[in-house]
Every structure is written in C-alpha cells, then in structure tokens.
Amino acid sequence: MEEATTLYEKIGGADRVRALVEAFYPRVQAHPLLKPIFPEDIRPVMEKQYLFLTQFLGGPPLYTEKYGHPMLRARHLPFPITPARAEAWLDCMSRAMDEVGITGQERELFFGRLVIAAHHMVNQEDD
C-alpha cells in the first residue's frame, strides 16, 4: 500500500475536504463579523472553497482548472477583511476541523498554512 504523500491525502482526501467545507460554512453564516461579507446563497462559495482547499492541500488542481490561478488576495480585495474578521474565519475553521476530526501534525500543518493565508487577506484595519 502506498503511503499518503500530500496533506490532502493525509487528512482523507475529497470526502474529508467536503466534510470540512460543510462543517465550516454554517459557522461562517452564523458569525456576526463574517455573515455580512458572504452572500445569502452560500452554495457557490462552498463549491469554490472545496475546489480551492483540494488544490491548497496538494490534491488535484481543481480550482485552477475551473477558475484560473487562485490570486487569493486580489479576489478578496472587494470585501472588507479586518484582522478581527481573519481571526473569526480562523476560529470557524478550527471548530470545523474539530467537528470533522482533523487532528495531529496534519492539522498543525494545514491550520498553519491557513493562518498565513487569512492574515494575507487582511485589507483594512478593525473599526
């Protein structure tokens, strides 16, 4: 049996990424800082997140195949992302990881990369 080589494989591949996205977005929609910057119909956002996280974790390049280079910061510039919102986003993701059982070294590596990305998205100060 081959050993899992990517973080995507190590956390459980497509099924685990899908479960994470499904656990994450209800938290986002319920969060008072995050809800205002997300659309009412969250399904398209969820699908993009699934495609992105698959690629971000070393799985197939689904996001790039469908939308081109992720250009995360540029794609997020239209939205007011503050340090508090970045932290709220990370908290929602951490709780979603708890729910779907992403643990150990894989979680540390994955979450560490998300922390860097979330802080890179900040484009204005808190009020």
Automatic annotation (TrEMBL):
Swiss-Prot/TrEMBL keywords: Heme, Iron, Metal-binding, Transport
Binding site for heme: H119
Organism the protein comes from: Thermoactinomyces daqus
Protein name as it appears in the record: Globin
Gene3D superfamilies named in the record: Globins
InterPro entries registered for this protein in UniProt: GlbO/GLB3-like (IPR044203), Globin-like_sf (IPR009050), Globin/Proto (IPR012292), Globin_bac-like_CS (IPR019795), Hemoglobin_trunc (IPR001486)
Transmembrane segments: none
Family: Belongs to the truncated hemoglobin family. Group II subfamily.
Coiled-coil regions, chain positions: none
Cofactor(s) the record lists: heme
Cited PROSITE patterns: GLOBIN_FAM_2
SUPFAM superfamilies hit by this protein: Globin-like
Any one GO molecular function term: heme binding
Alphabetized Pfam families for the sequence: Bac_globin
